[in-house]
């Protein structure tokens, strides 16, 4: 599954992941993050597990960002 980190408490080591079209956030613990440098707004992939606390995210990894190379306007015009 994929989602976005919407809340994170660094001191306590937990946060919430939100998904499109889902009202409730999914709890995660920093111990379940396999990636470093995640922050609020980071897109992540994860698996869902059910515990006695409820639904939690496990095996959390960051999704690579696509970087688009934009051509200068002069190059675009010369291609026409």
Strand content: 35-45%
The number of distinct helices, counting runs of at least 4 residues, comes to: 1
Q: Count of DSSP E strands?
A: 5
Low-confidence stretches: none
Strand order of the largest sheet: 3-2-1-4-5
Q: What is the straight-line distance between the termini?
A: 41 Å
Instruction: Give the overall average pLDDT.
Output: 83
Key attributes of the depicted protein:
9% helix, 5 strands, single chain, mainly beta, five-stranded antiparallel sheet, 80 residues
Question: Explain this structure to me?
Answer:
This protein has 80 residues and is mainly beta. It contains one helix and five strands, in the order βββββα. The chain has one helix at 73-79, and strands at 2-9, 14-18, 26-29, 43-51, 54-62. A five-stranded antiparallel sheet has the order 3-2-1-4-5, with no helix packed on it. The N and C termini lie far apart (41 Å).
